[in-house]
Every structure is written in C-alpha cells, then in structure tokens.
Design a protein that fits this description.
elongated
C-alpha cells in the first residue's frame, strides 16, 4: 500500500530490473564473445540438413552473400560477402542480446532462444519472404526449417555464452 499523496513506483520494479553497471563496454565485450561463438556454431543445423539431403553445404553461406551482392555474382564473391555479412550480423545480434541480458532478470538461454526466434521471424519472414526481399532470392530459395533452426541455435548458444560470462 502507498501512503496518501505517495505515487506508485513506475517501471521497472527494483526486484525485476537489473541495475546498470559498468556502462556499455562490458556488454559490448560480452556481446562480441557471444556473437563470435554463436556465429561460428549456429550454422550446424542447416549444414547437417544440407549434407543429409545431398544439398550444397555452402549454399547458405553464399545466400548470406546475397544480402550484399546480386544473386548472379560469382560464387566465390558471394561466399566472401556471406562471411562478412554473417560476422557483422552475428556480432551485432550478440551485442543486442548481451544488453538485453544485462537489463532483465530472465535466464540468458531462454531469452536467447526467444531472440533467435524473433530474429528468424524478421530475417526470414518479414524481410526475405516479403516483396521488399525479392532481391534476396538465394535466401528465399533455401529450405526454411533449417534456417530457422540456425537462428534458434544462434540465440541458444549466445545465451549460453552470456550465462557463463555472468
């Protein structure tokens, strides 16, 4: 109960929010670490799927290159551009997740999985499968399930790294 004339506390309640500590630098370091590890390992589901179904295991990497280059660019150029795009996106999303983990009391791994699902919805649904994403035909042509699994793996792995780094 509140005393007469006293206002109720506004968002966020102290028991829920974590205090901001150390500024942005620790979150950036943790995000880079989480994004690096998750970026290196999160392609496992689609790679296993590609190998099991006789597809090209590098197709997803070249498709990521279609974010920066036209679909008809040389395969080697698409592969290099895909590597660059994947590094930038992984480090960026890892940092966003590190900031989110620092600002909530939610467990990092489930938060990471939820973030991976949201990122997949934006990347693979809203952007790549919409009329605006028509130029990213190589991404659109990939099997959707393994790509969603990669995004979920990214979130889970990044969350696990962040949980270990505390």
């Amino acid at each position: 109960m509140h005393e007469a004339g006293e206002t109720a506390p506004i968002y966020p309640p102290a028991a829920v929010a974590k205090p901001a500590t150390g500024g942005f630098a620790p979150a950036l370091r943790q995000g880079i670490a989480a994004g690096t590890v998750a970026g290196l390992l999160s392609g496992f589901p689609s790679t296993v799927h590609a190998l099991a179904t006789g597809r090209d295991p590098l197709a997803a990497a070249r498709a990521a290159g279609n974010l920066l280059l036209p679909a008809d660019a040389r395969p080697s150029a698409l592969l290099a551009a895909g590597g660059l795009a994947h590094v930038v996106l992984s480090l960026g999303w890892g940092t966003v997740l590190a900031v989110a983990v620092r600002r909530t009391s939610l467990s990092p791994v489930p938060l990471g999985v939820a973030a991976g699902a949201a990122i997949a919805a934006v990347d693979l649904g809203l952007l790549c499968r919409s009329p605006a994403g028509r130029r990213w035909t190589l991404i659109h042509d990939l099997p959707l399930g393994p790509q969603v699994a990669d995004h979920l793996a990214f979130g889970a792995i990044a969350g696990a790294v962040l949980a270990r780094r505390g």
